[in-house]
Specification:
Elements (H helix, E strand, L loop, with lengths): L11 E3 L2 E3 L2 E5 L3 H12 L3 E5 L11 E4 L2 E4 L5 E2 L4 H8 L6 E2 L6 E5 L2 E4 L12 H7 L4 H8 L15 H9 L1 H16 L8 H4 L4 H6 L3 H18 L6 E4 L5 H12 L3 E3 L4 E7 L2 E6 L6 E5 L1 E4 L3 H8 L4 H7 L4 E12 L11 E3 L8 E6 H4 L1 H10 L5 E8 L12 H16 L7 E12 L5 H13 L4 E3 L9 H24 L9
Parallel strand pairs: 3-4, 3-16, 4-12, 9-18, 16-22
Antiparallel strand pairs: 1-2, 5-6, 7-11, 8-11, 9-10, 13-14, 14-15, 17-20, 17-21, 18-19, 19-20
Helix pairs in contact: 1-10, 1-17, 2-17, 5-6, 11-12, 12-16
Length: about 500
């Protein structure tokens, strides 16, 4: 385990008996369960308190057309090692599987089109590829070309993504290429999202290079060179049976090691109690106090802010400023014969200005061969195609006021028009993620740095989760691992100075 000191145990002796320090983890999503797993490895006794009826947060699956299908996050970025290390650590390496080599496309100007080759999160790296793609109008392409001849645009502080890229390449590049990519990751808007936080690869080039397009081309060339030197392989992966099985494995590992994972247990308050902490948790009328030597807040930023308001008000003020976007995932099962033509590619993104309800579509059973195999086993006499539609961006809350049936009907109508699907789906599932994605708005990195500085003044307290260092699974695993490492260091130092454990619950 990177950075957390595997094999080292922190043990206190109280009254001649060996006692493990008790750590409470608030939040039982991927980040909280990973932090719990890492803390148990280094000798802590851990209790995970989750307010929802089930653990896992946005990692969840349920059957559609007789096979388990993820209703939240569905893939792991393999270019970062943290999630793959966790998968291996949990003994799930033999279940790793990769997508079929079918690239995603873009619905732009009334047609499905290929992304221009050499782009970086939608920012084009070459004028010829951009023109050939047909994603932009000729006017938009000529406007993007100005980047190659204009003087440098100097930026000294964080700015919205749309501001910098719009100045360099024009609004069509922002609206038709960059915003759909950012919408898929954050459900956010380019005129609000932070350039530093959302497109960190571009920031150094933005501050040192004249042409953004030339800088993107160089970045892509460097990435390609590194990929050639590294072990070859797909960029994404998942687990057979669904990525949500990662949660099952984490819960099993934590509980088998003596940890507790309590669901339907909201945390009411957090107070400092000597060298430790006092947590009040439980449903109304059944609250109880829990003593802890250390606490990990692995809950959404607004909840962390509420719990920190008394003891760490400086951090609470920063975290209260982090907004969230809601979204819905519509999973549809179609008969393959109802498509006008077999789906091409793994799916497509839809710019907001196209006026569609859906913002992204994944042909799940095309993208993931394991799902296609499972569907063939479940339906040997009828080829079935699973389609996943994402709906909802920040500022589009009105769309999500529709009922589940209405949302599904809107998605079906868009698919019928874009993909030529002649008949309704044979099965559908609607999953809503209320306030599901944190918004990395301008100043996000400085905001998080101030919050962490305030929290660091209170040893035995740590933050982790999607609101801090990235919304992807590897980033969440890394954030949780770092929180566990920080608390392990604090607890070890207490042992070295002869401090005792918190009182029993």
């Amino acid at each position: 385990m990177a950075g957390c000191g595997r094999g080292h145990e922190t043990i206190w002796k109280a009254g001649g008996m060996e006692t493990k320090p008790h750590v409470v983890v608030v939040g039982g999503g991927l980040s909280g369960l990973t932090a719990a797993h890492r803390l148990i490895e280094t000798g802590s006794r851990v209790t995970v308190l989750e307010s929802a009826p089930r653990p896992g947060g946005k990692l969840h699956s349920s059957p559609v057309a007789g096979v388990p299908v993820d209703s939240g996050a569905e893939s792991i970025l393999t270019r970062r090692p943290e999630a793959l290390e966790l998968v291996a650590d949990l003994g799930l390496g033999d279940r790793l599987t990769h997508p079929a080599p079918a690239p995603a496309r873009l619905y732009s100007r009334g047609a499905l089109r290929d992304f221009p080759s050499g782009h970086l999160m939608g920012v084009p790296g070459g004028l010829t590829a951009l023109a050939r793609s047909g994603v932009l109008s000729w006017t938009g392409t000529l406007r993007a070309a100005r980047d190659l001849v204009w003087p440098a645009t100097t930026i000294h502080a964080d700015v919205p993504v749309a501001t910098y890229i719009g100045v360099r390449m024009g609004s069509e590049v922002v609206d038709r290429l960059v915003e759909p990519m950012l919408g898929g990751v954050y459900a956010g808007r380019a005129d609000r999202l932070s350039l530093e936080a959302a497109l960190p690869q571009i920031v150094p080039a933005a501050r040192t290079r004249r042409s953004l397009m030339a800088a993107v081309r160089e970045i892509k060339e460097e990435q390609a060179a590194k990929a050639r030197d590294a072990a070859p392989g797909p960029v994404f992966a998942t687990l057979r049976g669904g990525l949500a099985t990662l949660i099952d494995a984490l819960v099993d590992r934590v509980t088998a090691a003596g940890g507790a994972v309590e669901t339907s247990t909201p945390v009411r308050e957090l107070r400092r109690d000597g060298a430790g902490w006092r947590i009040v948790a439980g449903p109304p009328g059944a609250e109880r106090a829990v003593a802890a030597d250390a606490v990990v807040l692995a809950c959404p930023a607004p909840e962390a802010a509420r719990l920190l308001r008394v003891e760490v008000p400086e951090a609470a003020r920063e975290l209260e400023r982090i907004g969230y976007a809601s979204m819905a995932v519509i999973t549809l099962a179609y008969r393959a014969r109802d498509f006008a033509a077999p789906p091409k590619g793994s799916g497509f993104l839809v710019p907001a200005l196209e006026g569609r309800t859906i913002k992204a579509v994944t042909f799940s059973s095309v993208k993931w061969p394991w799902l296609a195999e499972a569907l063939r086993a479940a339906h040997p006499d009828e080829e079935t195609v699973l389609v996943r539609c994402s709906i909802g961006r920040v500022g589009e809350e009105e769309t999500l006021q529709h009922s589940d049936e209405e949302l599904a009907a809107l998605a079906v109508a868009d698919l019928a028009d874009i993909c030529g699907i002649g008949r309704p789906p044979v099965e559908q599932r609607v999953t809503r993620w209320q306030a599901g994605l944190p918004q990395y708005t301008v100043g996000h990195e400085a905001r998080i740095a101030r919050a962490r500085t305030a929290v660091a003044a209170h040893p035995g307290l740590a933050l982790c989760g999607a609101a801090y260092d990235g919304v992807g699974i590897p980033a969440c695993v890394a954030s949780a691992t770092e929180a566990a490492r920080t608390l392990t260091t604090v607890l070890t130092e207490r042992v070295a100075h002869g401090a005792g454990p918190a009182l029993s619950d």
